[in-house]
Amino acid sequence: MAKSAAVKKVLLKRPEVERPLRWAFDGIELTNITLHPKPDANYLGSEFKFDMTIEIKVNAERRLAIAFTKVLVQDSVTEAILADLGAVCAYRIENFEEIFHLDGKGLYQMSDTIRTLINSLSISTCRGVLWAELRGTYLHKAVLPIFDPKSFAKKE
Fold first, then answer.
1. Which CATH architecture has domain 23-150?
2. Is the CB of residue 52 less than 8 Å from the CB of residue 70?
3. In the chain, where the domains are located
């Protein structure tokens, strides 16, 4: 009879957030989609450049964090604009007052951890929306790559 290997249990802990975030999607809205004509009849569109911006705003009265995401799809060689998309993701934050704090200028601030979570979810959602909008077009291979959600710098 063969000896069985010892099984070691490993508990993985989720990184702690300053305060537990209690939140849910409130809505997703496509604000614009523009598909530009093919640069020429023989255009194959195999390599793309993506420019993405995310701006997070809050509505304290409704307890919402709202991520405005814009994506520009360009040809990687000519940089011709092929498509642009705008999407809004709204997140209802149950414990809004614990997560967002007014600074001396009257602007709401959040931790980098919360900003990264919102950016990550918004990027992933936008990836799916972009794919759904471009499938069946000449840009069906333009799949939004994986971005580091921490790479979106906070605007001062």
1. Roll (3.10)
2. yes
3. 23-150
